[in-house]
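Why predict the complex rather than its parts? Because the way molecules touch one another can change local conformation, and only a joint prediction can capture that. The input here totals 732 residues.
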Amino acid sequence: GREEKNTQAKSKCKGKKEKKKEKRAEEAEEKGPESESAETSSSTRPALPPTFSLSEIKNKQRRQLMFMKLKQEKRKQKLELRKKRRKEREALGDKAPPKEVPKTIENQRVYDETTVDPEDEEVAYDEGTDEFSAYFNKLINPKVLITTSDRPRGRTVRFCEQLATVIPNAHVYYRRGLALKRVIPQCISRDFTYLMVINEDRKVPNGMILCHLPDGPTAHFKVSSVRLRKEMKRRGKDPTEHYPEVILNNFTTRLGHSIGRLFAALFPHDPQFQGRQVATFHNQRDFIFFRFHRYIFRNEKKVGIQELGPRFTLKLRSLQKGTFDSKFGEYEWVHKRHEMDSNRRKFHL
Amino acid sequence: MADKSQTCSVWLGSETGILKGVSLSKKRAFNFCDMSSVSRDQEICALTWGDRQESEVLVGCVNGSVKTFSTEKGVFTETRVCGDISQGRFTGIAVTDRSLITCVESGLLKVWTEGSADTVEINVGGEVCRMRQNPSQRHRVATGGKENPLKVWDLERPDKPIFTAKNVANDWLDLRVPVWVRDVAFIPDSDRIVTCTGYHQVRVYDPSTPQRRPVLEAEFGEYPLTTLALPAGHDRVVVGNTHGQIAILDLRKGLVRGCMKGLAGSVRGLQCHPSSPLLASCGLDRFLRIHSLEDRSTVRLAPPILFSALLNVFFFSFLLKLVGSDAAGEVEEVKEEERDEVWDSMETVSEKGEKRTVEEEAEESRETAEKKEEKKKRKKAKK
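Output of the joint prediction:
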């Protein structure tokens, strides 16, 4: 109470180091009657956690100082521990236990029951006869129509143009305020296999609807982190007309399989290796990262890659069974934030 | 195969044409199909019990064939062709004592009597979404569809429906309210019928009253309601919509009592167990879930079972009791037959208009005719 105030008033005039000493002395005083043994164990600080934490110190400068000291202490202890462990490991030599793997969110991922077993017959049959089978049996070549929401601004327009260079056989059309439900039958009659609509909000693309055309599933994604060609550092020259290869990473669950096939069917089935271009869809923690690279093998062990083309990330919001019909269509998967995002270690793709 | 099929308490039909049985006591699912003839045009769109003892399952496929599956033997025993693809999918299959009733999307309702080759055909109207049979009066069926209002048909007099629902009054803009009946159910122990529509409305009709408009109307959500189920007890209905939301509605006032969590895809099938407060749901997200109606949680005894194909329809076996975790692997057969006897022996309390026989209806028509005559007389007298 009063004693504390007095001491505090005095210490305001003093320098930093003195302040620290005083604080330590105060703490020691307070802890004195409580734990004498604790004092003897550590000279500077009681081992028992103080009943007041650093956040109770009202003076900002002093609080910051104490916190900095705490961090330095911790770092020191950590380093000591590490050195000790390394010495032990070297001392043991071959008999040392294997290094522990650090826990990451991907490691701790809740096992998803829908993970597809590669030998599952039923899934194989299901995939063999679903809407994409015509494409995967090399019967149809993809033809993509790219458009935007109404009245797109410059960034979205440039994004669409760049997408059209990346995806072979893609055509960009201006939207003109037309209703998608009316656009779709026209696309079907002109033999398009995909309709891609980039939605724009505040002059920036933020959503994508990917609709497989004859009667296929419609996926609605949230688009973020769009980088156009101009903004990429150390990029290569513009992509050529060669068909790129497609890499799909980490689409393990049943839903992931469907989405992976959706992406794969965007590109023609026979990549032209002469073009040395590759489009990658990498799924991590339910985010799908799209990258477009050109590679060259310098020798058997070294590869050089250049990133070309736009890059963006997608997050699946819903997968609907028929063609685009958000009001009356049946959804195969809908992202429900409160139910699905409650666990940090559970992912659906 | 036979022992597997005998332990299955839930039967599901998938889009790939495979009939699946789930044994909840063993928590496993089994596929029943001939692998050679699996194809997409055998997609199962309707399932029903073949008889009261629940020994046969009738499976309706997209290509128009109805297959009989015996639960005791575990194999498909019979196939009948009851239509073809051009007429649309089966929207309902039902069985009476000697005949099979099928209804397809184009509106053709056929009654196939065993033994004789002739069928009774009724044209129910345009696009039909659902046909259901009244569980207590097995010769009554109800149909409904898109721009096809609810109609109740008596199969003994197939020319005209007994009851045709009238559309609701024009809305506040004086526009006609569109009609899209997606699922129908008969409320047990009364004449009332509950429907759910594609415009997220739930309506209750009462054919016993002269009012042809719905007695009660309730709304839920913003997405089309696909299925409904009636739990035991007469005042609640469970509906599911295309977004995966399942809600329990109270039929006394039309309020939402609660929602079930868990489903991520469109709800394709909902069924309530008749005795225990359980609800099972299946949908396009390929899971079968069992929910508890009392506390709306997903019951622990049956975690969501995954299937690798989209699930279309399913239903419970009412005979096999859903056993708790105590009895390991044993299935107790509820004595359904005894229960039936108990019900039969009780006197039927006939309320006004409950059991309409032919005579009563004739009387009523006579009464209305008399009333009309009286009215005419009165008018003449006034003049």
